């Protein structure tokens, strides 16, 4: 009998524990406690996903109660009516803001009550219903629903502009194809800009070559009285560069010799060295550039036809240009084509520079005396008179 009595007591104890557990769970899920509650109704005009009976109610971030019920309004199917119970003395006012807040990654939600002025009255019950607070429009939307709505609007925009997007993508593909086909030219353009600005490691490694002005001229019998201006020579775009070029014999197109350049563009380089050659020949006070600012009676115009290495069985450096002497009246008083060649020991940069320097020496030795002879043979401009101008006196009347 005593054994059976002990088993009965154990069974009763277990039943009591189970009943207490169920009561505690019910308290947590539905009431959150056995104390008194103040109840309110909340109206939302949008979905309240994640909100359940027993969800927390927060006032300024502090838990003050729980959701006790959720219903739909038959007269307004888009609205959701939520019943909440909060601890007494919670400062709920008629202007308290109502919202919905997602909690964590579990998808749960909580009612949020924010602020309200101390002078505002509490919400009043009407028609026997609980006091009503209305949430702001869209307050029930969480970040997930807002993201879905934004993606839907973005999809609508993409659908409406599908043709324009296809056209833009096609144009972009065309543009990239053009860039791919002209990548060598773009690299050359960027390299040219880099060399022009003096930047880049490549510019520092590229050897620079120069021409040498002619010095061995016979002395002049007397210094001439004429003045001669030598403008910058004209040249095609392919020759108006500081690149050292090589052209196969019999061909019209030339290519650049890699890792080599002149000290300046070919027209400026030839102008400088030709003026120096005139000065070395004794015409320092007679020859100058246009920018020096003095008036000249004669001008020497040069048009460069060739300035490159001619590659073949026997490579040669070639310089060719057309020379024209213009008189004070702008008319041509003499014209001649000068061509100078010199053998090269190879087709590399050093051999090309040496051969072109020798070719320039030959052409400059012909150009300087030819120009002086043409100017001396041309009619000279009248020399300015040193006497003051005479005034013509009008007869006096008596």
Task: Explain what this protein looks like in three dimensions.
The longest helix has 30 residues, at 2-31. It is built from seven helices and 15 strands. The protein is rod-shaped, with a radius of gyration of 50 Å. The model is unreliable at 391-398 (pLDDT under 50). By secondary structure, it is of the alpha/beta class. Among the domains are: 35-140; 224-377, ABC-type transport auxiliary lipoprotein component (Rossmann fold, 3-Layer(aba) Sandwich). The chain has helices at 2-31, 143-160, 162-181, 183-196, 201-205, 266-280, 349-377, and strands spanning 38-44, 56-59, 62-73, 76-86, 97-103, 108-114, 132-134, 208-209, 228-229, 243-248, 255-262, 287-288, 298-311, 316-326, 332-343.
What is the CA–CA distance across the termini?
181 Å
Portion of residues within helices:
25-40%
| Assembly state (oligomeric) | single chain
What is the number of E strands?
15
Form type:
rod-shaped
Provide the succession of SSEs: HEEEEEEEHHHHEEEEHEEEEH
Helical segment tally?
A: 7
CATH architecture of the domain at 224-377: 3-Layer(aba) Sandwich
CATH class of the domain at 224-377: Alpha Beta
Beta content: 25-35%
> Any idea of the CATH topology of the domain at 224-377?
Rossmann fold
Tell me the CATH superfamily of the domain at 224-377: ABC-type transport auxiliary lipoprotein component
Q: Provide the residue-averaged pLDDT.
A: 82
Can you tell me the residue ranges where pLDDT is under 50 for at least 5 consecutive residues?
Answer: 391-398
Question: Which sheet architecture does the biggest sheet show?
Answer: 8 strands, mixed
Helix/sheet category: alpha/beta
CA gyration radius, whole angstroms: 50 Å
